[in-house]
Amino acid sequence: MTFSTAVGAGHSAPQSHDPFSHPAGCASTAGYSPCLCHHPHHRVSRYRRRLHQLLAIGEWAAGLTQDQLATVQAARFKGRYIPPSESAIRRALQRSDAAALDRILTHWMAEYGSPKAIACDGKTLRGSGSETTKPRHLVAAVVHGSTRIVAQTAVDQKSHEIPAMYPLLEPLELTGTLVTADALHTQTDLATYLVEDKQADYLFIAQGNQPTLEADIRALQPEDFSPSDGNLGQRPWTHCASCFAHPHHLECLSGVSACSAGVSMRTHHHGGQNRGNPIHIVGVTSCDANRATPADLLAAVRQHWTIENQVHWTRDVTWKEDASHVRTGSAPRMLASFRNMVLSWL
Fold this sequence. Notes:
With 346 residues, the chain is α+β, with helices and mostly antiparallel strands. 36% of the residues lie in helices and 17% in strands. The protein contains 13 helices and 10 strands. The strands form 2 sheets. The protein has an 8-stranded mixed sheet, with helices on both faces. The chain has a two-stranded antiparallel sheet with strand order 1-2. The protein starts with a helix and ends with a helix.
């Protein structure tokens, strides 16, 4: 399936108020324009202002030249190309195959080669819910230290993030890749899947959802760990002052059979009331000392937050994703995928 057919799957038939039938490619080109034209619409009603992203798409399409409309194969009427209306684009997005679009984008990102490390995290499209339905929730994988989104999948509304990790990671070539995730995903089954099925490594944080694992790692003595590189050359106001890796498999790691190391980090607040107070964070990884030094693990912990600081922050603050009340059909996920596409280009 091509990009255009994925976006245009189920493209609506001509309607009485929109008598021009536009090919799927026309809607697909107009679809990712909201990332480029998020501006307020103060002269529209409050209800329509909530849908300002679709209005912005329609305004962008209306401003295309004849040559540009010809390029996107817009409909012709009396010898002139007619831009698709906001309603035509909206219907196309609502009826498109969002999962197919994400698969195409995953295949496209695979052309850049296997990443050394990826961060996985979920994000709720807060404005996509209603009084009777939950907001859409998506899980994505982002290359460390960049905004390149290599995969995205939707979480079933009757489920949660943990089962969604498997369809997210399944199409990816992860041999030798380090996968990082927050404490929610510190699960025995996922750790085993990554190491045995995907030949990948993991670095997970251990917190309250794995109390035995967390307590066992915290109980380890400093001499149990390989020597740290101290501040690892980082500036004093950055996080994580130390990181240690245990070289042996530990039975105390709460049944995580694929685990070979415990990770201990001490971080310092760089602002607020707790400025300068150390916080002890522990984690678990399948990397041994031959594949990852303390500096490597420390860098991976920092770079994991790229997905929050650069991807989610841009989508929420710059592009006002949570303020969007687009909620019908596939449109919310389609717009999220378009934003991912633009971020991956940057």
